[in-house]
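assembly run, all chains below
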Amino acid sequence: MIGLSHYLVLSAALFALGVLGLLTRKNAVQVLMSIELMLNAANVNLVAFSRYAAGNLGGQVFAVFVIVVAASEVAVALAIVLTLYRLRRTPNLDDADILKG
Amino acid sequence: MDELSRSLAWFRPELALVIGLLLVVIAEAFGGASRRLALRLLTAGSLAAALTFALELQAGGIKAALFSGMLVIDPLSVAFKLILIAAGLVTVLAFSFRNSRELHGLGQGELFALVLALTLSCLLLAAANDILMLYLALEMVSITSYVMVAYLKGDRMSNEASLKYVLFGAASTGSMLYGFSLLYGLAGTTSLPAIQDYLAGGIPDANRFAVYAVTILVLAGFGFKIAAVPFHFWCPDVYQGAPTPVTALLSVLPKAAGLAIALRFFYGALSAPEAGTWDLAGSINWKALLMLVSVMTMTLGNVAALTQTNMKRLLAYSSIAHAGYLLMGIVALSENGARALLVYLAGYLVMNLGAFLVVTLVHLHDGSFDLRDYPGLYRRAPLLTLAMAFFLLSLVGIPPFVGFLAKLYVFAAVIEQGMGIYATIGALNAAVAAYYYFKILKVMTIDPGNEDKPALQLAFPDRAWLAALALANLVPLLFWERIEAWARGALVLYAGR
Amino acid sequence: MSGEAVVFWIFATLSVASAAVVVLARTLIYSAFALLVTFFGVAGLYVLLGADFLAATQILIYVGGILVLLLFGVMLTHRIYDLDLKSGTIQLGSGLIVAAGLFVILSALALKAAWPTLARAPAPTTAGIGRLFLSDYLLPFEAASVLLLVALMGAAMIVRRRRDA
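ok done. output:
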């Protein structure tokens, strides 16, 4: 019988893995991915509680908003990463010039 | 529908800002030579309208829950809103693309829209009454700040700082979210008053651990916004990397909103009001934890500031230290504590914005943020130095400046709760801080150097704002009874049912 | 084992294993594709929990939006190996200890706590969520549009190349 505790332990695992990535990864995009794992863990919690503990849809609505926020955060973060990439690039380094001005 | 129209009627400050935001975004699409001025007027007008509406709300003394319990209106939240809108308005008026060298040559429309969006988000955060709304508002404040900090996209250090800000912020709010998910699971609802009922009803021992974890995780989010230790790491780099007007705004707005919601959360969710005092549910000694955070914050901020030569970093550490003092208002967990928090924030607004204005102006004329380039300013810009003296003395907390009043309130609130040692630590910290504030003053006035540099020609608006903010630091002490009465009246905290 | 249990364990293992790959993989591309699998795994779990709207949203937005954006980010910056934050990272060993400790603590409190038991029978959720958006959660729903405006404007402004007036 699959119950609430299964999902909670799962989300704890995802959250812990996210924190691991946050602490050990050097690359900014990988840190961002780790943070997404943390957010997904919280979302699993919310949906599981909605199903088994709270009996209402509040958790699921909350999860939708978390997805919205995550999307905004990633957009802004990647914009900054891209700008940083452009600034650090030296003229003679790259031949795959995907970024055209 | 009825509740909706009623809610909208009391939502006027925020509506003014939303309409202003939309108009600025639309107006920005049109070109024109006077566009910059028009956008600035539009932004300032929108903020002024919001301020007027907020003043009306304050006079009304309303207590209600808005939008199905998403927000709360009570005199306390309106008082915070006044401070937040005032901070936005002063920043938009005192700082400009003209007097900030960092902003020269950059697009203008977006920054005004972002200021409006930031203020709006802070208003929502300060009044949030539901953990979903709280999370959303907090993230709105954060993401708007990330974008504002990244405004100097041509500068590599600035970009690195903003990236650090985003990642650190996302991690902190992500942790807070996990805490909120657990809270939802425990209480079965996202509404803060309902959560308060749940917690006041007595927590079974099995759940005690979970409540512990929730509060620590939630503190991660609040601590990050307030820049309290150990969530302060982003602060010096971000303050240094952002354009100074943005730094000035960020030093007040998110901090004040974060403190407002922390106050409401600890009172509105984690306390048992029937007990008479603001006793926290579960009899868990949160006071000690918060006190520890507060002490670490003020100490670290002050000690780190001692050796800084970059003015923006120095003021960043100074802000961190002040967050520590501000937390005293929350630790006191009493009406006087909340009152102290309000007064301190209002004073902090004029002290900090003034100091940042001075730093901006010096950078405009001399191109430097380094304290070692500050000697001789007494001779070259007497008005500026005098104003800076006011701001610095206020930051130290010396009478007759407003900073003294602020510190008096927080220390009194804390002593009244029997935490004498805590107050002593605060006073010691203030004494340590005095060293670096006085050092700045000394460099500006007494230190030799820069004799060959010409006098600073300050434009009239700049001189006017320096004078206005300087006076704002001095005058409140004359009206301290009025302030006391205002703070006391604002102290009605509605539980938002 | 019941059918539900089988499906749960499949998706659970998928999610956690791929999450581990995301965090431990050598190259960015491996991490990104592992993240794709994690998102799908979580979507599967949502279906199992009866959250049909959320599962669809997860796939549409997380996979179809966020992950695609991350992949673009990875592809466009693939030459930079040092686009990193050297300060503040710790060794893998100590990181594993911290993460393991965190997992133990969170699991313990999850298993120990007496959660309420108001279950919600699995039923289509879209109508219910829609209703909530327009009644109880109306304000966040509208406020989110301001958030999206700021993010859109902000990201575009940051990335924009042309010299501003």
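The mean pLDDT of chain C is 88.

Chain C has two domains: 1-83, 124-165.

not gonna interpret more than that til we talk
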